[in-house]
Structures are given as structure tokens and as C-alpha cells.
């Protein structure tokens, strides 16, 4: 990566419960996002993806670790110091209708970040709103409509316009299409890609769907139980996944490539509880190729190739060993 926009180092987020108990939502993760690039963050429900996105925007306070945005550590900033940064960091939410205030028109919705951040003089706002609506494919006739008068696709376009109106450098896209039907999903993903190239914005694209992540992302990070278990440029991770969990995610979408397929039965059961995590391989309880020594510690991120890391002690032999335990 040539020009780093965001650098996350050793990020931890614990949600404390009663007494000393806590949910280990993020257990020490590190990654970077380059300017204008998309990092796909993929994993099952409960793996910690949304919490990562919310930490980047400081919508939740990290427990420890560093988040550098354009060089400065945003975990150290006060609320007041953070305010000017708000226009450069935005989020698009999963459910477009739920994320829009039903009593606000499209114009009022898209205007909100401008007003909150006193971004540009107020007399310029209408022109800016009309322009961004045009970029997301909505004409001026939409300005005075309410969310209920819009289709799901139009609602998400409004959500995207609201996120992009202040020309942010990073937008967290949290499952932006998971509530949409397949044709609308394609439309919105295509729109997000074209906006990225015209506005040179970076995305953290959060999804449980590895195929959507593959289409959208320059690089991919795979999350499991609050850990990143593998990360790499998209082509590398899709061609040569080294963590058994990455392989399992690929098999769950029934990859057309037989070399990637794994019987679903290989990874059985649910993601375990995130309460009071132990220092061991997070995937141990479901791993088809586990060893006793996987219980000794969280495996380090092994260097598989250029920018390709896998946190598995057996990364050199994953494919061979999986083929032995589950011949097709
Ligand atoms: N406010 C909170 N209090 C306690 N636990 C929380 C809180 N928010 C999230 N968690 C827990 O943190 C873990 C990670 O949740 P998170 O929502 O980040 O996962 P996710 O991968 O985004 O899942 P999903 O796809 O379902 O949104 C889960 O175990 C979740 O129950």
C-alpha cells in the first residue's frame, strides 16, 4: 500500500458486564486502509465487524490500541478535537429505512452533516445537496420527499448522499445492501464503486458475504470472534486462503471453484461465546485441523506472502491437511 489513510494497531474493545466479566468484542487487531481503497471486513454475525466500524468513528470508545487517521491518533482526541474530523469520517448503515428519520425530508436528511459540522456557508448547501443527489442518481424532485415515499434503493441512495456530502476520506459501509433484494443490491454496489473512483474515498466494507466482499474490495480482512484471522489483497486471499475459517466462509457460499469448496460439515456449531475470551486460538472449538498446541496462545499472524498474513499454526499445510480430513 502506498499511501496509508487509516492505521489500526492492537485495537481492543471490551464491553464490561457485571463484576469482572466482559464481552471481548475486539481482541487486539491491526490493519491499514490506503487512500481511496476498499478494505473488506468479513465474518459471521457476532465476530466484531460493526464494533470495529464504530470504533473507527469513535461511536464506541476503544478499550485500548491506536487508530491513526491521516497520521493522528484519534483515540486520544477529546470530543471537541474530534468534531472537525467528523466530516472526513462517515458511515452508511445496514437498514436504510431505519437509519433515516421519518419526519425529515431528503433535503433535511442530507443537510444534517453540513449543519452539524458547519460545513461550508449555509447559502451553498442547497447547491451541494442537489449535486450529491445527482451523483447518487436522484433528481431535484426528491428534495422534499419523506423516507416513506421512497423505494429501498432510493432510501439507501439518500443514506449514501448523506455520508458523502462532506467529501469524507473514509466511509464505513456496514452491510449496506444486506436488507436489499439482489437486483437493488447490485445497483447500490455498482454505485458505491463508481462514487469511490470519482470521489477518491476509502471504504471499510463490512459484510458477512465473502462474494460481495470479493467484488468490492482491494484487500480483505477475515474476522472471527474479535480477531483478524487472515488478511491479504483480494486476489491472493481468494486464490490461496490459508486459514481454515477463511476456507469455511468460502465453502458456505458454495464457491463454483471446486478447489475452494469444503463440506459444510467441516465447521460445525455456532460461533462460541465472546464472554471472557481465553488466550488460545479463537477458532479452536470449531477447527477441523486443530492441534493441542493451538491452545497455548493466540496464533501470531504468519507472513504467507506479500501483504498476506494468516493467524494459523498450520498455514503452510492448510489445503493438504483439509483435503485429508475431508476428501471430496
Ligand atoms: N453494547 C454492547 N454491549 C455488550 N456486548 C456488545 C455490545 N455491542 C456488541 N456487543 C457484542 O460484541 C460482539 C461483536 O458484536 P458486533 O455487532 O460488532 O459483531 P458483528 O460481526 O458486526 O455482528 P453482526 O453482523 O450481527 O452485526 C458480539 O458478541 C456482541 O454481542
TrEMBL record:
GO molecular function: ATP binding; ATP hydrolysis activity
Family recorded in the similarity comment: Belongs to the ABC transporter superfamily.
Broad class of where this protein is predominantly found: membrane
Protein name stated in the entry: ABC transporter domain-containing protein
Swiss-Prot/TrEMBL GO biological process terms: peptide transport; transmembrane transport
Record-annotated ABC transporter domain positions: 6-250
Topological category with respect to the lipid bilayer: Peripheral membrane protein
Subcellular location: Cell inner membrane
Membrane-traversing stretches: none
GO cellular component, one term: plasma membrane
Keywords attached to this entry: ATP-binding, Nucleotide-binding, Transport
SMART domains for the chain: AAA
Source organism (scientific name): Bradyrhizobium valentinum
UniProt key word Transcription: no
UniProt function note: Involved in beta-(1-->2)glucan export. Transmembrane domains (TMD) form a pore in the inner membrane and the ATP-binding domain (NBD) is responsible for energy generation.
